[in-house]
Amino acid sequence: MIHNKEIKKLIEAYKTIWALSHFSALGSWDLETYMPSDASAVRGEAMAKIGTMIQSIYLSKEFINTFKIASEEEDLTDYEKGILRNVRRKIDDFTKLPPEFVEKFERLINQAQVAWRKAREKDEFGLFAPILQEIVDLTIQKTDLLGYENEPYDALLDQFEESLTTNTVKEFFEDIKSFLLPTLEEVSNDDVFTSGSKLANTKYDKSKLKKLCIYILDLLSYDSNRLRLDVSTHPFSENMGSKYDARITTRFEGSNLSRPITSTIHEFGHALYDMQTAEELEYTPARNPHSLGLHESQSRFWENIVGRGKPFLGLLIDEIKKLGGEYKDTEVDDLYKLFNTVKPGFIRVEADELTYHLHIMIRFEIERMLVNKEVKINELSELWNSKYKEYLGIEPRNQAEGVLQDIHWSMGAIGYFPTYSTGTILSATWKYKIEEDLRTNISDLAGEKEGIKKIKLWLKNNIHKHGNVYVFNDLISKVTGKSFETESWKKYITSKFISS
Amino acid sequence: MIHNKEIKKLIEAYKTIWALSHFSALGSWDLETYMPSDASAVRGEAMAKIGTMIQSIYLSKEFINTFKIASEEEDLTDYEKGILRNVRRKIDDFTKLPPEFVEKFERLINQAQVAWRKAREKDEFGLFAPILQEIVDLTIQKTDLLGYENEPYDALLDQFEESLTTNTVKEFFEDIKSFLLPTLEEVSNDDVFTSGSKLANTKYDKSKLKKLCIYILDLLSYDSNRLRLDVSTHPFSENMGSKYDARITTRFEGSNLSRPITSTIHEFGHALYDMQTAEELEYTPARNPHSLGLHESQSRFWENIVGRGKPFLGLLIDEIKKLGGEYKDTEVDDLYKLFNTVKPGFIRVEADELTYHLHIMIRFEIERMLVNKEVKINELSELWNSKYKEYLGIEPRNQAEGVLQDIHWSMGAIGYFPTYSTGTILSATWKYKIEEDLRTNISDLAGEKEGIKKIKLWLKNNIHKHGNVYVFNDLISKVTGKSFETESWKKYITSKFISS
Question: Under a CB-based contact definition with an 8 Å cutoff, are residues A50 and A27 in contact?
Answer without folding.
Answer: yes
